[in-house]
Amino acid sequence: MPSRNHLDKIGRKKKKKWTEEAMERALIEVKSGRCTVRRAAKEFGVPKSSLGDRVSGRVTPGSRSGPAQLITSADEELLVEFSLYMSKHGFPLTKQQLVSFASSIYKRQHRRVAFSKLGQTWWLNFRKRQEKNITIQPADNVVRGRTVSVRKEAVDQFFHLLSTVMEAHGLRDKPLQILNCNEVGFHLGRKRVILPKSASLGCKPTPGSRDHISILACFSATGEDIPPFIIYSKAYPGGVCYKTQGPPNALYGWSDSGCINSDLFKKWFLKHFLLHTPKERPLLLIFDGHKSPINLEVVEAARKEDVILLCLPPHCSHILQPLDAGLFVLLKQHFAALIGDGCATDTHYAVSKKEFSGVFKETYQVVKEEEGVRIVKEGFRKCGIYPLNHFAINKGHLMPLHSMGPAAGPSLSTSAQGVHAVGDVIAAGPSS
């Protein structure tokens, strides 16, 4: 038997729909004195209370009814603009990332609010409001994890994007203005365990390691460097000697994992990268932005400072990251040699957390002075980034499309016409 609430819901009369045009005509009739509010509301089919609010001036004619939008229409347009920028530069702008961007905008308008009110309801309403710019389309195939072979299509698309950006900004013959940043990890401890090769931005420390420290390094295609960013796990070492012993002008930070995250990348970009970069503009910064989402503030600052952010395709860092192509191996070899640890480069290093910055300073300076510039230049050349050469990539590392598995599910994508929301990921591409 149906419940009382169910019967009430069925029997409840639906509200009559009315248009702004009808409301305007009713308002004209009332203000001219030809009709009362009650009669005009009945004649034009509009709510009497809403008409009365407009007559009294409590509500501005033409204003939106219902609760106010959490962020303004102008800010929503800005949000779509940022989404397009990220997509056109290869970044995987997820639904969570877009909501995070919107939350940053919301918090600027509501500084006293401790948390953002933007959630699933806002997201669904945002998509409805932006339905002319947001469409659903199936996702591309994705290979999970870091593999020996990578998608040829992904590499081709990256080089097309890189070539387009370089041509548009006149960077083909300006190696000083082309930079790559990448993260390399050091596991500290005395246990000799062979570890898998660490990933790039957003790498994960090996379980069971005593301490993990990451270095975010940044070099231009000429071999010029930005002072390194040293990231400790869990907390800074005791005392302040780690700063005085470390490389000149180095930046320091910490995270639970000892790896880069969104907040640390924002700190590095705003307070360190922009301070030490060449004065020439524009600059092109290439990095793996898939595992460490970019803050809205970073995108805003990059656009303001004429820095072009370009994201490498997923799982391709071992063939497209210039610093992975030689410099990091050399750094670990010299680091191991300096502490008298003649083991392979992917093991725990017998050095304490307090001692690390001092040992790394010597390693970094030796590598820079002896072979660093040549190795960095060679890395950019081997990856085909500078000089720009798509054919520099070893074809043995590329996997054709027909060898891919089934589609990995829906994702978000954008085109020049707008943002295309598809499941979970936004990426550049034509609408279907």
Automatic annotation (TrEMBL):
Q: Which Gene3D superfamilies match?
A: Homeodomain-like
Top-level lineage group: Eukaryota
Q: Which InterPro entries match?
A: CenT-Element_Derived, DDE_SF_endonuclease_dom, Homeodomain-like_sf, HTH_CenpB_DNA-bd_dom, HTH_Psq
Q: Which UniProt keywords apply?
A: DNA-binding, Nucleus
Q: Name the Pfam families for this protein.
A: DDE_1 (PF03184), HTH_psq (PF05225)
Location of the HTH CENPB-type domain: 63-136
Q: What is this protein called?
A: HTH CENPB-type domain-containing protein
